[in-house]
Specification:
CATH class: Mainly Beta
Oligomer: single chain
Shape: elongated
CATH architecture: Beta Barrel
Strand order of the largest sheet: 1-2-3-4-5-6-7-8
């Protein structure tokens, strides 16, 4: 399934190389992320930032390349019972390729597939070795993941846009998932 999506995106990119670009956008903005599923048990609301490049291939469809950084702080109730650290956290760096399509002039839907690198320096107290399967303990994980989003893009002038979106990311782990809902508010500049 993942390989099929990647192949489809590569074909779309190759087909658009011969077409003249109608639009090229760059956006940058903060993100606020709420962990879901297994990820929600150990971590609280997170924050980060992302940058996105968008290349229009059809009048209402664009290819996107997105890179983001996220940080989640651990649930404080769990710190004193299980961990050596005074606090614990997980960081994520991700890069994804996607398709964005405008449903109306201002509203859009998007889908993406990408690579997620998660890392942490958390240490557990002796006797809590079972936690090694549940939270990132002094290690990193790298996984492919997918995301779906809906958003609103409002022009501020001819070249500047305010872009707000909500994305659900599906990121599998070794034994648990790192799914999340992310809200992004960005400024986009059209070339």
């Amino acid at each position: 399934m993942v390989l099929r999506i990647v192949k489809t995106l590569i074909v779309i990119v190759l087909l658009t190389i011969t077409m003249q670009a109608q639009m090229f956008k760059v956006s940058l903005g903060p993100e606020f992320s709420n962990p879901k599923g297994d990820f929600n048990y150990w971590y609280e609301m997170g924050y980060g930032a992302s940058a996105q490049i968008e290349y229009q291939v059809l009048s209402r469809m664009s290819l996107t390349l997105n890179s983001s950084y996220g940080y989640w702080h651990g649930d404080e109730d769990l710190i004193y019972r299980y961990l050596k650290n005074k606090s614990y956290s997980v960081n994520s760096v991700s890069t994804s390729l996607g398709i964005k399509t405008h449903i109306t002039e201002n509203f859009y839907a998007a889908g993406e597939i990408g690579y997620h690198y998660l890392f942490s320096n958390t240490e557990i107290l002796p006797g809590n070795e079972l936690l090694k399967e549940e939270i990132l303990i002094k290690k990193s994980l790298s996984h492919f993941g997918q995301g779906i989003a809906i958003g609103f893009e409002k022009p501020l002038n001819n070249n500047l846009f305010l872009d707000g979106s909500v994305k659900y990311s599906f990121v599998p782990g070794e034994a648990y998932t790192y799914n999340r809902v992310t809200t992004r508010i960005a400024l986009s500049y059209q070339f």
